[in-house]
Amino acid sequence: MKNELVKRLSEVNKDSLGISEAIAICTAYATLQVYQHIETIARPVVKADDERRFIIADSVLIKTNEGAILSAVVVRKRGVTVPQPTALLYFIYSNTDRSIADAKYAAARGYVGMVADTRGKRLSPNTVEPYEHEATDVNSVIDWIVRQPWSNGKVGMYGGSYSGFAQWAALKHPHPALKTIVPYVAAIPGQGYRWKTTYF
């Protein structure tokens, strides 16, 4: 909403406006005001609904087989009493709100939703080393998943870009609990990214 208003204002480069330009700017401003007002009301309502529908653990720490610490978000649907399969997104982008949203989406559809962050991201104290440890770290995450009482021992991975790469890397040493991968637009080392930088 704010971007729309800024865009409209940036397109104005003269001393006067036509009626359609003025209406467009006023509409964008009014929409932004309404959105900001609704957002302050909606946030607590959405949070209460999430607490009613889901069990959200947003500070899970997982120790890898190599001793590194990974952080994760796990979301389960409240009231489910049988073990479920896990939909795992493994990524480097580390945004807690986005991770919770992705995990809730999976949990609302019959899975335990989980988003695990690479080394050095979010709550992990380790150094960020893109593309270096996914083949083993993903297996450590899956090991952790299958030990949980809510897991039925089946894991599927999904996601694009870096998450797509992580799925292919995980197949270097296929975990028996990893039943499917759904990669799309998977990144590969050296293509589209400068190698050995702090891009992530």
From TrEMBL:
Molecular function, one GO term: hydrolase activity
Coiled-coil residues: none
Pfam families: Peptidase_S15
Record-annotated Xaa-Pro dipeptidyl-peptidase-like domain positions: 83-187
Gene3D superfamilies (alphabetical): alpha/beta hydrolase
Record's protein name: Xaa-Pro dipeptidyl-peptidase-like domain-containing protein
